[in-house]
Amino acid sequence: MFLNLLSSYVGTQEVPDGEGGTKTQYIYDDVWTSYAKDGLGNVLLWLVVAFAVVLLAVGIFIRVKRADFFRTYVKYAVAFATGLAVVILVVMLALEFFDMSESGAVFELVLIPSAVLFGVVVLGTAATYVCSLYSKKAFKISLWTSLGVFAAAVIALVVCISIHYSSGASSDANEADPSLINDLGLYLGMAGLIVVLALLTFFFGRKDRKGFDSRTIAYAAVCIAMSFALSYLSIFHLPYGGSVTIASLLPLMIYSYMFGVRKGVFAGLIYGLLQIIQDPMILHPAQMFLDYPIAFAGIGLAGMFRGVHALDKAPQVKFLLGALVGSAIRYLSHLFSGVFAFGQFASYYGFDSDWLYSLTYNSFVFADIAIAIVVGVVVFSSKAFMNVVDRYNRPAKPAAAQAVPAAPERSAEGSVLPPQDAVSKTDVNAPAESKQTPKQE
């Protein structure tokens, strides 16, 4: 198969560009990367399913037969899954770039800042984790430096997207009419969802542990990478963005449940920004925020009901309720984008109402989240998994008060007496003396 994929690419040729000139085009461009991406995506999809079944079966066997080895097995399984996720991410992301390059959909003004943002996230996470191994001071310096560079990269991306939108190149590439985009509706929808997301995050995350440490950063990197890799393994893909995947958002939901909604929303925000690299469908800056960072930041609310103690015996219900709220935020975000930006395509599919078109088109969210919820409920039904989860996001224990040494006791003559505990320890450790008097010959 791979030899056929490689042999299908035979070179380039000059073709008319429609303006009296020529442009370079790959020969069999529809065969090479498009076929490779789709074909390899299907192979990796079934490969991931097979590995998941095998790891689960082995885990159940070890849990029953060798319970003492189960925790070690989980560590190795997570490490293996993370490595597989990184491989899938790199391969599919490379093919995605090749495919966009051949089809002429590569816009350096958007993709280069997106790639820089991706590099900032990866390198910043690695640098922060390494610095955490030395000292808390080095960790804080690297953390705040990485966050500053990340903020600068986000601002640069927004500026570049605004310039790209103003030039009209984005609308031309997607055959959209900028005059039919409802700017006011997009900005109001974006502002409203940001307010709702901020209020929910503040209220349900007020008891979360504050700040990041090396563990939360490492877990965030792993969960984002796994979600990003799984997002390439789609069951089907829609023409204007959106796809149904095999529980690609589950790692982000688990992270939110383990470490709290504040960190979960932040991880979802980063994941949404990285999604711009994978499937850029941008008609308007506000539409970009609605379809990517805001939509996936809402998934970070999946852990919002973790602190409801009335449901402590049913963690599956906690996860289910949080996942439903997070998916509702995501659906509303895509809905507003579909009505105010993509509503102009409603007539192409036989819809007279932009709202009805967006409601129908974005219903893929329900199928995508349903798969993640079903798998998540199964995972949260495992007592071993919940034992691991319960170790995180517990309220910090108050610092133990330092014991003040009591004044030494003195005898009637003024000499210092040994402490009572020392006397007891001495009595316990000293060899017992015989109470019987020695026999005399």
In brief, what are we looking at here?
This protein has 441 residues and is mainly alpha-helical. It has helices at residues 2-7, 33-65, 70-103, 108-132, 136-167, 169-173, 183-204, 214-230, 250-259, 261-278, 285-297, 315-340, 354-361, 364-380, 383-389, 420-429; strands spanning 12-16, 22-26, 234-237, 243-245.
What are the key terms here?
64% helix, 3 domains, 16 helices, globular, Arp2/3 complex 21 kDa subunit ARPC3, mainly alpha, two-stranded antiparallel sheet, disordered C terminus, 441 residues
Any overview of this molecule?
The protein has 441 residues and is mostly helical. The protein folds into three domains: 1-105; 107-167; 176-393, Arp2/3 complex 21 kDa subunit ARPC3 (Orthogonal Bundle), CATH 1.10.1760.20. The protein is 64% helix and 4% strand. It contains 16 helices and four strands. Helix 4 runs antiparallel to helix 5 and helix 4 runs antiparallel to helix 10.
Q: How far apart, in Å, are the first and last alpha carbons?
A: 102 Å
Number of domains: 3
DSSP helix count? 16
Radius of gyration: 29 Å
Q: What is the CATH class name of the largest domain?
A: Mainly Alpha
Which structural class should the secondary elements be placed in? Answer: mainly alpha
Query: Which strands sit side by side, in order, in the main sheet?
Result: 1-2
Supply the CATH architecture of the largest domain.
Orthogonal Bundle
Helix content: 55-70%
Low-confidence stretches: 1-9, 398-407, 409-414, 420-441
Which percent band covers the strand fraction?
A: under 5%
CATH topology of the largest domain: Arp2/3 complex 21 kDa subunit ARPC3
Q: Please give the number of β-strands.
A: 4
Order of helices and strands: HEEHHHHHHHEEHHHHHHHH
Largest sheet: 2 strands, antiparallel
Mean pLDDT: 76
Shape assignment: globular
